[in-house]
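hi! just following up on the protien thing from before. the input was this:
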Amino acid sequence: MALQLTPLVTPSCRALGYVGGLTLAAWFFAPSNIFSWHPTCMGIGFILVMTEGILRAIEFRFLEKADRVQAIRTHGYIQLLALIFILLGS
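and the predicted 3d structure came back as:
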């Protein structure tokens, strides 16, 4: 069974877009202020990516067998991405 990354593309691209935009904003307005990374990464981790993972968890309630396993893996990968952002922000 091959790993399908298609369900991961949307939240990952969304998160990277937010990080890129916020990084440019933080660099432009306050290049020496490292505290701006804390609310940026924590906000992306908790509000955007973790919410996406929770929404993915709702989807696999009614699935069975291989589809359910794949949906649970996708949920886990999204939650792992959220954890990475949260740890970067703490």
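Helices lie at 6-29, 37-59, 65-89.
Residues 35-90 form one domain.
cheers
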